[in-house]
Amino acid sequence: MRTPRVLVCLTAALALAGCGAQVDEKTDDAKKAPASGHYPVTIENCGVKTVYDKAPRRVVTNDVGIAEIMFALGLEDHMAGYVAPDYKTSRKDDIPWRDGYDKVKRLSTKQINKEMVLDAKADLVFAGWNYGFGEGDGFTPATLRKLGIGSYVLTESCRSGSGKQRGVMPPLEALYTDLTTLGKIFDVEDRAAKLVAGFKKKVADAQAAIPADGKRPKVFLYDDGRDKPVTAGAYAGPHDIITKAGGDHVMSDLKDTWTTVGWETVVDRRPDVIVINNYGDVTAEEKRKFLLSYPPLADVPAVKNKRIFVLDYVDLVESPRNPDAIAALAGYLKGVGED
């Protein structure tokens, strides 16, 4: 899970080392040598180029959205397990990629660590900055490299080069980039291309139903927090989910992924709708009750009109559920715009 949330390895020192992968340090002549079959392949992930001589066979993922990226690509047979807590969900029987959860072993509901991946004999860890990777825990691509284990960093979490701020591209582009790059690593490029095309069509269909001359409701994403709300900036999944669903993301000026703001900023920007992230120890209903009863928000239109919409955590972080989240929110915002 994110702790608060994820992103770029900026130096070659953090590049992958395990699973037949190596930093791209070949000479120009070597790079021109003809390849045998699909491999070797060179990919770029969060600014680091890596050469894969073969597909990883024992991948360990951290967090539910990252696991579902692998499941969506049909890569269960390349996984040694996944780490993810028991997230709250509004879904019952329609959980996407249920077969992936049945096929792949859950290693833990706790924070991922070196012991877990070593016990799993992992050759690649797919996680992200603040989605598992973090200097504070000593669990980074660099430390894994020393153990002979490769890393792939969730693109949403790539660090921008400005301190530990995250985000190098629009959120949906990050999803499409990861699907395309992983397709290349695992030799399932056609499958990845089909997924991306289907997701783009789903988003386009949702946008086509938005009234061209309709109002764009102002939307605030509320993750959690009483003293200061945790919310989403321009590089977190909710930004594209909100804007492509026909909303005006009131925190789009925050050039980061997940971060905190002051309640006075929320009040000043007067959102028409608040989207709750169904995540953490506090339930979505408890969050809703807090928002509706918190005195400083009393005159905010979303609170006055009780326009609060709930999406699950996995809908909002980078995951293959993002397009469906756009369609769901677009339907809700259409009703708000018609009021």
Label the CATH architecture of the largest domain: 3-Layer(aba) Sandwich
The SSE string, one letter per element, is EHEEEHEHEHEEHEHHEEHEEHEHHEHH
**Gross morphology:** globular
Highest-level CATH class of the largest domain: Alpha Beta
How many structural domains does the protein architecture include?
Answer: 2
Structure classification: alpha/beta
Instruction: Please compute the radius of gyration using only Cα atoms.
Output: 20 Å
Q: Strand portion, in percent?
A: 15-25%
Signal peptide: 1-17
Family: Belongs to the bacterial solute-binding protein 8 family.
Keywords: Signal
Domain Fe/B12 periplasmic-binding: 58-339
Describe this structure as you would to a colleague.
The protein is of the alpha/beta class. It folds into two domains: about 10-205, Rossmann fold (3-Layer(aba) Sandwich); about 210-339, Nitrogenase molybdenum iron protein domain (Rossmann fold, 3-Layer(aba) Sandwich), CATH 3.40.50. Helices cover about 35% and strands about 20% of the residues. The strands form four sheets. Strands 4, 5, 6, 7, 8 and 9 form a six-stranded parallel β-sheet that branches. A four-stranded parallel β-sheet has the order 12-10-14-15, with helices on both faces. Strand 5 (about 80-85), helix 3 and strand 6 form a beta-alpha-beta unit. Helix 6 packs antiparallel against helix 7, helix 7 (about 190-210) runs parallel beside helix 13 and helix 8 packs across helix 13. The model is unreliable at about 1-20 and about 25-35 (pLDDT under 50).
